[in-house]
From TrEMBL:
Limits of the Fe-S metabolism associated domain: 12-130
Organism, scientific name: Marinomonas arenicola
Top-level taxon in the UniProt lineage: Bacteria
Family membership: Belongs to the SufE family.
Name listed for the protein in its UniProt record: SufE family protein
Length: 131
C-alpha cells in the first residue's frame, strides 16, 4: 500500500470540491487507490453487514499496528473506504479507538453522499475498524 493516500491528501482533495459533482469525481479518483480483493477474500466473514453496497474489510496486524484492505462493488463506496482507511491505517488499535472517526469524516465534505442507508453502512465500517 505504498501509494495509498495520506489523510492530509484525502482531506485536501475532498475539501477542495465545490459541488456534489466534483466530490463524486474526487471519490471515484480516490477509489482507484484501493487495491481490489481477490474472489477468495470476498467471504461472508469479511463482508460488512448493513451496507447498501457489498463491502468487504480485512484487518491485518503487524507489530501492534493495524492495516486494512477493503473492497466494494460500488466505486463511490470504494472512494469512501479510501478516505476512512487513510485515517486509521498504520495506527495501533488503541489509537484507532481514540480517534473520533465520525468527526473526521464530517470534515471530508462527503455527507451529501451518505444517504440514510449508506450512512448506516459507513457506521458499520467505522465500528468494524474500531473493533
Amino acid at each position: 500500500m505504498t501509494d495509498f493516500p495520506t489523510p492530509h491528501t484525502v482531506k485536501q482533495q475532498l475539501q477542495a470540491c465545490r459541488s456534489k459533482e466534483e466530490t463524486f469525481k474526487a471519490l471515484v479518483t480516490l477509489s482507484k487507490a484501493l487495491p481490489r480483493l481477490s474472489g477468495e477474500e470476498k467471504t461472508e466473514d469479511n463482508k460488512i453487514k448493513g451496507c447498501e453496497s457489498a463491502v468487504w474489510l480485512i484487518i491485518e496486524e503487524d507489530t501492534g499496528r493495524r492495516y486494512f484492505r477493503a473492497d466494494s462493488d460500488a466505486k463511490l463506496m470504494r472512494g469512501v473506504l479510501v478516505a476512512v482507511i487513510s485515517l486509521v491505517t498504520g495506527k495501533t488499535q488503541q489509537a484507532i479507538q481514540e480517534t473520533d472517526l465520525k468527526a473526521e469524516l464530517a470534515e471530508l465534505n462527503i455527507s451529501s453522499y451518505l444517504t440514510s442507508s449508506r450512512s448506516n453502512g459507513v457506521l458499520a465500517i467505522l465500528q468494524a475498524l474500531q473493533a
